């Protein structure tokens, strides 16, 4: 039953000439799809609207070819074809009564222009933001005049495509922010110098956009109110207050956040709590009567209410919580808060964008698959047969598979060896900063508890005989994977000879590492979260830790999750000794030996214990025992038992199996092709 305590979340709010049906606002977020996947993008945004988000925004949308982010998934409004393509997204959002917003974008020297090969632009002349050896020229007055025309033309096209809210985007280090910030604006004309001068372009853009849409669309200003660069840049209690005061009533809506390098805005849970932006954005509402939206990985309705009640925000903004659960608003409206699939703050969704591939999510395996696989986050086809299933293993893959098969109506039994469900999550969520990862287990365990056709058997380690004797029509092995002890990892392709020592550990047996082992060497050839989080844990327990990796930085893959800089800073702050660009090549007496990947010089590192965080092998012994003992095609593997990977892949694997169980095989996913 709907809890009237949350009524305020469902009030309508005026945004200029438009009215939002409620206070849930899906702020712009990357989908990794962009202009190359208009149907998939439209389906994704349509699902958000169906799930109850009153405003649904697109990702960044280039206003001109001089701002191109290829191969990353950005949209464009350069011509009439773009208008046609984007109208599908606006239509998909309108179909469910929500407002459609579009984030018009120009990257300035933060663009790539690899596709268009246009010269880069910037306020004062700047080296390109990314690694490419190119520089942006300083815009002269005619460039500025042209730039304003591009924004106006794109705004007209946005209106034609059917959007209700058109953005002026002065966030995330992009061109308008480059004009606002004294770090990057060193101009001496009327567009540089004082705050008023630096704000001039953004003011003109807002006025131009209002004029272009002729009062028929709302105009939003997205502003980074703190670049987290200290007084060198925009700070919430410095320049940002003056900027907001100066533009206060000009936009119809303020969309405010923090920006700057290292993924400050979408900080992972390892480095931020729910509502972490409040201290930065709370001043904005004091300076304007226009509605304000902000973000902070909000998943708790009470936290959302608190933001509204205390006058911090008018709209509850969300990117990641809307990815993890597109139906979050509807669940609150129907009194089903307990069914919210809470974002765990792992930033796998960010990784997809940084890898230039369609979005994926740890908690929501259907994210990005709305059009491609026709998956809906809340609906699943009923079973095609009366087959009973036994799922062995209650980690992320087994839990998701059991739940999805249960939703399809199958009789499901889930056997787990341990007394607690969760599999690898039990260990990983104990690591510093990763406690929210247990939500992957909690959500599924809770939902499984609601289904009478799923029986859960904890403390039930199944042997092949047990499984055969159980008599299920189909057996699904979700028995996970084990960390390797032979040195084979991302860099080390061959086994390394290690002495038979009781002082070599993996994350799987780390609890046996004695406290007396004063100095510990952790070798990370996995490059994701566990190596560095384990290092942190060992350091916090008082061990002297040397972190060694073949890569030139700590946890190199976390560059994809926007965490790498934070992680390396943390290890350095904890006085962890770093030995980078070195791979494990053997042992010299009792000391592991590492070889520089560039110079081939070797060095021994003395330590009391070695922890290997390298590759994983599937725990598939049961599978091989069962094949031949069970009828053909009645035993399957999912998750790490099939191919060890990160948690998102395990959940996806379990979900996919359940969706495809008993269905006609379809190996090919839909792809968008150029029109003939
Ligand atoms: P995944 O990420 O693929 O879900 P996990 O390693 O997280 O894999 O989970 C595997 C789970 O399977 C663990 O909870 C483990 O205790 C359980 N398990 C492994 N072997 C058996 C078995 N023979 N019987 C029951 N449970 C098992
Ligand atoms: Fe949240 Fe992780 Fe899903 Fe992103 S991938 S929405 S951070 S659970």
What can you tell me about this protein's structure?
The chain has 676 residues and is α/β, with parallel strands linked by helices. The chain has 20 helices and 29 strands. Strands 3-4-6-10-11-12-13-14 form an eight-stranded parallel barrel, surrounded by six helices. The two termini are 51 Å apart. The model has no long low-confidence stretch (mean pLDDT 96). Bound molecules: adenosine-5'-diphosphate (ADP) and iron/sulfur cluster. Residues 392-398, 415-418, 423-424, 460-462, 478-480, 619, 622, 639-641, 650 line the site of adenosine-5'-diphosphate.
**Ligands, ions, cofactors:** adenosine-5'-diphosphate, iron/sulfur cluster
The computed structural class is alpha/beta
The poorly predicted ranges are: none
**Cα-atom radius of gyration:** 26 Å
Query: In this structure, how is the largest beta sheet organized?
Result: 8 strands, parallel, barrel
How much strand content do the residues show?
Answer: 15-25%
Percent helix among the residues?
Answer: 25-40%
What would the principal axes of the Cα set say about the shape? globular
